[in-house]
């Protein structure tokens, strides 16, 4: 499994407060152990985000990613933000 971050994701991560960054780091470890862990509430997105998936960072913050199967499975994290900001 390979995890990669887009420039947009990196910018959003840097702008997030330290509590969110620390929580994302914990969630990412859990994700890397088991992407379908029920605590992550991993689910597919619909509409304009069809083809992407979302995991919970906190009750309001989400991380959006896309999975691609190449030689290995690659998870591209593309966005990090509050539910209202990401899905407006």
User: Class in CATH?
Assistant: Alpha Beta
Strand order of the largest sheet: 1-5-4-3-2
CATH homology superfamily: RelE-like
List the uncertain runs.
none
Total beta-strand segments = 5
Report strand %. 25-35%
The percent range for helix content is: 25-40%
Distance between the termini: 31 Å
Taking all Cα atoms into account, the compactness measure Rg is 12 Å
If you had to describe this structure to a student in words, what would you say it looks like?
With 88 residues, the protein is an alpha+beta fold. The chain has a single domain (2-86), classed as RelE-like (YaeB-like fold). Helix content is 33%, strand content 33%. The chain has three helices and five strands. It has helices at residues 7-15, 18-33, 83-86, and strands spanning 2-5, 43-44, 53-56, 61-69, 73-82. A hairpin with a 4-residue loop joins strand 3 (53-56) and strand 4 (61-69). The N and C termini lie far apart (31 Å).
Comma- or semicolon-separated keywords:
3 helices; 88 residues
Offer a quick outline of the entry:
The protein has 88 residues and is α+β, with helices and mostly antiparallel strands.
What's the SSE blueprint?
Layout (H helix, E strand, L loop, with lengths): L1 E4 L1 H9 L2 H16 L9 E2 L8 E4 L4 E9 L3 E10 H4 L2
Parallel strand pairs: 1-5
Antiparallel strand pairs: 2-3, 3-4, 4-5
């Amino acid at each position: 499994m390979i995890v990669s971050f887009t420039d947009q994701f990196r910018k959003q991560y840097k702008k997030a407060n330290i509590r969110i960054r620390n929580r994302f780091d914990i969630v990412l470890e859990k994700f890397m152990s088991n992407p379908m862990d029920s605590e992550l509430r991993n689910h597919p997105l619909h509409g304009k985000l069809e083809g992407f998936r979302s995991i919970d960072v906190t009750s309001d913050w989400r991380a959006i990613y896309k999975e691609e199967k190449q030689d290995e499975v690659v998870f591209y994290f593309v966005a990090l933000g509050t539910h209202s900001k990401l899905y407006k």
